[in-house]
Every structure is written in structure tokens, then in C-alpha cells.
Amino acid sequence: MILSLACALGAALLYGAGTVLQAIGLRRAADTAAESRWARLWAARLYVVGLGLDGLGFFASLVALRDLPLFVVESVIASSVGVTAILAVLFLGARLTRAEVVALVAVAVGLVLLALSGAEGPGVAPQPWSAWLLLGLVAPVLALGVLASRLRASLGLPLLAVTAGLGFAGVGVAARIITVPQELLNLALDPVPWALALYAVIALVAFGLALQKGSVTTATAITFGVETVAPAIVGLTWLGDRVRPDMETAAVLGFCLTLTGCILLGRHSTVATA
């Protein structure tokens, strides 16, 4: 359990640091007076490093999901916004409000409670029909995103954020139940990795479109809420995720503290686009 929890925390740190490095890289690229494309690319090299950290964070989260419940891992990963907030203060000159300082404390307390309450164990192996159902649900999520992208901002933004949250939720669920066979051909025939890849693409595109339509805080809050709550429900009702005996209250309190704190810190999750 210690290794899985360390991977979840490592993923949060990597995602948070990656966001800040991307922000610094974009700022340097925008400020450079160089006309050469290669010179501008070199100025934005930290952006590429940030993307690399995001990739490492993703693989760390996959390791964590092998043995920890979805409600623990998804909450820990969402706390990367707290890492981003702290690093933004240190390196980007951002300022935290009093409410955001309280939110950071709430996230920290919530994570401790979640770490203590989550029972270790692999996810339940899905039935063939349920794996195909996970892949089939890509279609309505995609349809929701396409519809939302064509609506005016007042309605399109929240629907795109919901789409992004469902996409990230699908990634978490797929990562929890994916199995790596000895023969790679069998992996290509498995619907779960295809679902994981498709949900990831939908989530990233929908979140980017939501940010373009309006409020960063609103888009992030809705996305965080859906991507944290939905996998937790699926994990507890379908995948065999468990809470330690007599720790149910601690689990609920920790989940609520972490989610609320992450939502309050949501504006920092998109510092790279600010």
C-alpha cells in the first residue's frame, strides 16, 4: 500500500509541477524577441519538460490504481492543484487568498484521512460485457461533448466541463481494471485500453474547449467534481473498492474536505493558460 500511495502522491506532485513548468515555458516563449522558430521552441523548452512530467504522473497514477480504491487515488490526483498553487506562489508571483490557504489545509487533512481509510486491494476483474459497456459509453460522452461545443457559453461551458469530468472518470475506471496480458496482441483486442485512450482524448479536448468558453474557475470546479465523484461511486459499487472497517466517517470527511479544497483552488489548475 505504501508504494501505491507514494505513486499517487508522486502523480499529484508531477502534475502540479508540470503545470507550473508549462506556464513558465509559455511565458518565456511569449516574451522572447527571437524570430527563428527554433529559438522560440528553445525558449519554450520548459513547456516540453512540463508535458513530460504530466506523462510520468499519468504512469504513476496507473501504478497507484492497481492497489488503491478509486476514491483515494482520484482525490489525491485532484490535489495536484494544491501543488500548483504553492509553486505558482513561489515561482510565478501568484498570491493566495485567505480562503485558498484554508483550502490547502483542508486538502492536506482530507488526504491524510483518505490514506488511513482506504482498503488496499486490486479492482474486481470485469466481466466481458462490462468491459465492452465501458467502451460503449464513450459514444454518449463524445456526443455530449459535440453538442456542448455547439451551444452558447452559458450552457456549453458547464456541459463541456461535465464531459471532461466524465472523460477523466472513464480514464480512472479503465486504469483500475486494465490487465496487461503476456501477449501484446491480446491487449490490442481488449476494449479497456481502447476505452482508456478514447476517454483521455475526449477529456483533454473538452476541458480545453470549456476553458475557451469562459470562466476557468467554473470549468475546473465542475470537472473536478465529476472526475472525483463519479469514479468513487463506480469503484465502491462495481469494482470492489472498500473502506477500512470503522473508517467510513473518516473516508467521507476526507473525501469532502479534499474535493472542496480542490474546487476552491481550481483557478490555479490552469495557470498555464492564464
Structure in words:
- It contains 13 helices and no strands.
- Helix 1 crosses helix 2 (37-43), helix 4 (70-78) packs parallel to helix 13 (248-264) and helix 7 runs parallel beside helix 11.
- It has helices spanning 2-31, 37-43, 45-65, 70-78, 80-91, 98-117, 128-136, 138-149, 153-177, 184-188, 191-213, 216-238, 248-264.
- 78% of the residues lie in helices and 0% in strands.
- It has 274 residues and is an all-alpha fold.
- 47% of the residues are buried.
- The protein has one domain.
- The longest helix is centred in the first third of the chain and has 30 residues, at 2-31.
Name its key features.
13 helices, 274 residues, single chain, mainly alpha
Summarize the structure.
With 274 residues, the protein is mainly alpha-helical.
The structure class reads: mainly alpha
Characterize the overall form. globular
The average pLDDT score comes to: 87
Query: What is the first-to-last residue Cα distance?
Result: 37 Å
Tally of strands: 0
The major pleated sheet works out as: none
Per DSSP, the total helix count is 13
Percentage of helical residues?
over 70%
- Helix and strand run: HHHHHHHHHHHHH
Tell me the count of domains. Answer: 1
List the uncertain runs.
Answer: none
Q: What's the helix and strand layout?
A:
Elements (H helix, E strand, L loop, with lengths): L1 H30 L5 H7 L1 H21 L4 H9 L1 H12 L6 H20 L10 H9 L1 H12 L3 H25 L6 H5 L2 H23 L2 H23 L9 H17 L10
Helix pairs in contact: 1-2, 1-3, 1-4, 1-5, 4-12, 4-13, 6-13, 7-11, 8-9, 8-11, 9-11, 9-12, 12-13
